[in-house]
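Illustration 12: Helix-turn-helix transcriptional regulator.
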Amino acid sequence: MENWVEEPKVIVNGEERHIVVHIQTLPSPILCAQAHSHSYIEMLYCLEGTHEILLNWKSYIFSEGDMVLINSKEIHQIKAISHGISSYIVVRFDPELLYTSYQNAFELKYMLPFTLNEHTPQKVFHAEEIKNTFLPGLFHELLEDYSKQPYCFEFALRTNICRIFLWILRYWNQSGLILHSAIEDSGLLKQFQTVLDYLNKHYDQDITAAEMADFCHMSYSYFSRMFKKVVHRSFREYLNYIRISKSELLLATTNLSITEIAMQTGFSTSSYFIQQFKFYKKISPKQFRKKFIAIEPATKLNQGME
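Figure caption equivalent — predicted structure in token form:
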């Protein structure tokens, strides 16, 4: 496992996928996945066969009915070791899916061990632990919603993933397992909550990391390093992310020009706004507006037919 690759985000039709769900079925024994890592959090639900998974060079076994939890950026390799068929459902998703757009550090604290690649108390949840819960059904529902993409499927995917993680966190809590992060213990979350609140309210203003570092009584280098570790984006990337999110609402609900929206959301020029929008959304603001306008009448038509 010394040799491993870092996989990029999944891109489909030019758009970055924040959730990816598929079923992996192969003849066994076989190497199902070579050693790799990615920024996604990943969950596996085994349908058939026995497998060995290496997580940061430590070996675990999972079989039919078991669930596996893989942290963001955790190196992993999967090998089917039984004879017959290997089959499991794969669910990958961006860690930010579990937060309120990174705006709530107190929600973020529950997810830090998964996103910082710190130790989590359990990697494999065996069939006896989950067979009488709603978890097996949710994995099949996730696979069906992702494959068929019914109305509101994106919301359904996010909701069901959050339900699985809520179950995991409460199960650990009830079992007396302690889940915490060194960052949480240091009190940094309270300071960063103040920063996130400020940025969410004043995103349209010219704000610098140096100003926020002074606000937190930190050096610029320490603030920048810890901000990226907690939020998984640099200060500038996060601020632009918030601005782009705000601009989406204006593009969808107003007739403001691209230049007006750029100014209202804190961008210095419309060209920089367009550049950043393309970076985060993989399409231009104009294309986004056209796409939204095309979807809205179709949605209303479908609702009228029900």
